[in-house]
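Okay, is this right?
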Amino acid sequence: MILNTLHGENPHVLYQISASENQHEMSVYVSDSSQNFSYSVKIANDLYLNDNFDTSTRIYALQKFLPMYGIDLEELVFFI
């Protein structure tokens, strides 16, 4: 999982979003409580990712998250 790896390198990004109390545009993807999502994945203590999205929405989310970690979107490559 890409975000899990990125979180391991810089945990502050996702924790800041989860602490924003829905004031951040990415709060729909990240929360400090699993109760905020129908389906979630725990990636750290008090940090959950919403896992109730289709593939295109997941790609869109990655395109929003990667710049927060200083990663160029051109580095996001998919192989079929």
